[in-house]
């Protein structure tokens, strides 16, 4: 299909608008990866693989992903590759991300001082965390609903807190998003955002931003999710493996 032509061979003048948008984001991500001396980006054939990755998704994926976080695209590509292998499916990545919120002009009023100290202590021992890969939580718009949450860092009127981002790649199936949402809720997580993308070859990439889990429990959270997903995986295995 026309949507799978190699982006590295150069864009033609007359292409659909959505294809042009996808190509622009692809070129931006590729440029950033090369500028950062990403090892994979220098590998022979990588450009075609990256373009094929974008072409597996609807244009919405290219529009929603943050090009400045080009390494997130690499992570999504890796998880999808893992999802093809029953031995490494479902492919799950759990990480801490930093999301903004803005108080009513008094950023310190609603923040417990002990929690502030805990947060600064944590940041002092760990590297700065990225924003979420998708969604409104990755920008700097005011998020008043986060005023009363547990962890914040004060930087003037705009404040930040750490939450977990869970990225899952597995076989696509009807109601997958709602089933994964139920699993995370049963674990006890508060879901702040959810984004789901289906590929043209029968796989899904689902990204959740969640809280209500201790910051240091990232690996435990991954294990909990990995343990629960097979409950919905079993009924999709036969369909995908027979393709």
Automatic annotation (TrEMBL):
Classification via Pfam families: ACT
Protein name: ACT domain-containing protein
PANTHER family: BIFUNCTIONAL URIDYLYLTRANSFERASE/URIDYLYL-REMOVING ENZYME, BIFUNCTIONAL URIDYLYLTRANSFERASE_URIDYLYL-REMOVING ENZYME
InterPro entries assigned: ACT-like_dom_sf (IPR045865), ACT_dom (IPR002912), UTase/UR (IPR010043)
Keyword vocabulary terms for this entry: Hydrolase
Database matches in PROSITE patterns: ACT
All copies of domain ACT, residue ranges: 165-243
Gene Ontology terms, MF aspect: [protein-PII] uridylyltransferase activity; hydrolase activity
UniProt feature coiled coil, ranges: none
Residues that span the membrane, as ranges: none
């Amino acid at each position: 299909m026309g949507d799978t032509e190699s982006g590295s061979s150069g864009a033609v003048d007359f292409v659909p608008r959505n294809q042009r948008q996808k190509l622009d984001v692809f070129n931006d991500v590729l440029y950033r990866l090369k500028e950062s001396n990403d090892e994979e980006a220098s590998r022979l054939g990588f450009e075609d693989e990256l373009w094929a990755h974008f072409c597996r998704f609807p244009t919405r994926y290219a529009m929603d992903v943050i090009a400045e976080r080009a390494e997130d695209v690499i992570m999504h590509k890796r998880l999808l590759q893992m999802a093809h292998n029953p031995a490494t499916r479902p492919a799950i990545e759990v990480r801490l991300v930093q999301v903004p919120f803005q108080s009513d002009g008094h950023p310190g009023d609603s923040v417990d001082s002990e929690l502030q100290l805990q947060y600064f202590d944590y940041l002092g021992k760990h590297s700065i965390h990225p924003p979420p890969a998708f969604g409104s939580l990755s920008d700097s718009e005011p998020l008043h609903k986060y005023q009363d949450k547990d962890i914040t860092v004060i930087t003037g009127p705009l404040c930040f807190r750490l939450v977990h981002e869970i990225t899952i790649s597995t076989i696509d199936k009807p109601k997958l998003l709602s089933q994964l949402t139920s699993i995370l809720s049963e674990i006890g997580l508060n879901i702040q955002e959810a984004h789901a993308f289906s590929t043209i070859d029968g796989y899904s990439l689902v990204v959740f931003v969640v809280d209500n889990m201790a910051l240091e429990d990232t690996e435990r959270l991954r294990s909990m999710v990995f343990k629960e997903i097979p409950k919905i995986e079993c009924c999709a295995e036969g369909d995908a493996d027979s393709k």
